[in-house]
């Protein structure tokens, strides 16, 4: 059941990313794509730091607390959540780019 819910969530994210270029004003498209890139970088850095098991500096520790909502060390919690958020952002940005290309061709 949990796996089906996860796949449904991924499908909903992909469909939302694909439909976004038709649902928002054209001037917002670049802002949405830049936001996806920045969020992907933030979550990618957090998951990479937690995967190697290193201590986070004060800036990344605060970022981990803001994004993940916990004060526990990043290696305990950030790897799974941050990696899932990273790939979700990549999926949304990829389907968004395909949708934008299709909207231009339409």
Task: Explain what this protein looks like in three dimensions.
It is a single chain. The protein has 106 residues and is mainly α. It has one domain. 84% of the residues lie in helices and 0% in strands. It has helices at 2-23, 29-52, 58-68, 74-105. Helix 1 packs across helix 4 and helix 2 (29-52) packs antiparallel against helix 4. It is globular and about 50 Å long. The chain starts with a helix and ends with a helix. The mean pLDDT is 76.
Describe the secondary-structure layout.
Elements: H1 2-23, H2 29-52, H3 58-68, H4 74-105
Helix pairs in contact: 1-4, 2-4
* Number of separate structural domains: 1
Question: If you compute it from the alpha carbons, what radius of gyration comes out, rounded to the nearest whole angstrom?
Answer: 16 Å
Major sheet description = none
Order of secondary-structure elements: HHHH
Name the overall outline: globular
Beta strands, count: 0
The helix count comes to 4
Mean pLDDT: 76
Oligomeric nature of the chains: single chain
Termini gap? 38 Å
Q: Fraction of residues in helices? A: over 70%
Secondary-structure-derived class: mainly alpha
Which consecutive residue ranges, at least 5 long each, have pLDDT under 50? none
Beta content comes to under 5%
């Amino acid at each position: 059941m949990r796996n089906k819910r996860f796949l449904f969530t991924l499908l909903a994210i992909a469909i939302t990313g694909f439909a976004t270029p038709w649902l928002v004003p054209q001037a917002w498209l670049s802002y949405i794509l830049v936001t996806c890139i920045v969020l992907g970088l933030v979550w990618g850095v957090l998951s990479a730091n937690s995967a190697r098991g290193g201590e986070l500096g004060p800036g990344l520790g605060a970022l981990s607390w803001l994004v993940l909502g916990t004060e526990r060390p990043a290696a305990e919690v950030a790897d799974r959540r941050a990696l899932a958020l990273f790939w979700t952002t990549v999926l949304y940005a990829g389907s968004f780019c395909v949708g934008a290309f299709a909207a231009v061709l339409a």
